[in-house]
Amino acid sequence: MSQREIIATVKRDYIVDLAEEGKRVDARDMDQYRDINIETNWAGNAEGSALVDLGKTKVLAGVKIERGTPYPDKPEEGVLITNAELAPMAHESFEAGPPGEEATELARVVDRGIRESEMIELDKLCIEPEEEVWMIHVDLHILDHDGNLIDASSLASVAALLSTEPPEDEEDWELSEFPVKEKPITTTFARIKDTIMADPCLVEENAMDARFSIATLENGNICAMQKGGSGTLSKEDLLNAHELAKVKSKEIREKLD
């Protein structure tokens, strides 16, 4: 076993022992999120943007609007495309090159929360049925990684979309504003042994058995879910996570307002 592996094992055992005592490495309560800061209109060359700090995790989301071809099965709807870039400067585990499995999963989870909540009224973004629609690109740039990229990226995306302005100098844009109607919030929980904790930091993610992310609407209804990790979750775990998600998403949504 290498020195790096030995250190990782010692850290994991320490986090597990703390969890069994009802404690966390940064002294937070089990249902407590790290400090959240949201700064919109951060990138001047985008139609919408937001920089989110979740503890030491930092994510920049940018929104670009362009013309494109609709999907064949939805010829009268605009198109949402979400991409994530895990820059090597954000963490030593990230490598340069095409998006890997982690980046692909992150983009899909964020995309699903936005899409299934129907946050964007895509039916209003048609220019010519079957021919041309508006395409919404949400690009995620991970600047610093200290855990829970899903929540930070989802929040940055929602904040960026809420700040999005119609494209300038586009004659075919007929709407007075960018069509959004929902504010989905994703909250993530980790299970370590028999303990469920909100907003896991990186060392907690490295020690967790399973991860569960829930995207909820303002009325508390679930619009998307994602399970990660090799461990299992019981029905009770899921029900408890949903109740926590309703409380935590309300707190986070207030920061958007």
From TrEMBL:
GO MF terms held by the record: mRNA 3'-UTR AU-rich region binding
Q: Which UniProt keywords apply?
A: Cytoplasm, Exosome
Cellular compartment(s): Cytoplasm
Family in the record: Belongs to the RNase PH family. Rrp42 subfamily.
Concerning Gene3D superfamilies, the annotation shows:
GHMP Kinase, N-terminal domain (3.30.230.70)
Q: How does it assemble?
A: Component of the archaeal exosome complex. Forms a hexameric ring-like arrangement composed of 3 Rrp41-Rrp42 heterodimers. The hexameric ring associates with a trimer of Rrp4 and/or Csl4 subunits.
Please describe what this protein does: Non-catalytic component of the exosome, which is a complex involved in RNA degradation. Contributes to the structuring of the Rrp41 active site.
Q: Which organism is it from?
A: candidate division MSBL1 archaeon SCGC-AAA259D14
Domain Exoribonuclease phosphorolytic as annotated: residue spans: 32-164, 184-246
The GO annotation for biological process reads: rRNA catabolic process
Give the principal location in a single coarse category. Answer: cytoplasm
User: Could you identify this protein by its name?
Assistant: Exosome complex component Rrp42
Gene name per UniProt: rrp42
Q: Name one Pfam family in it.
A: RNase_PH_C
The protein's matches in NCBIfam families, at most eight in alphabetical order, are given as: PRK04282.1-1
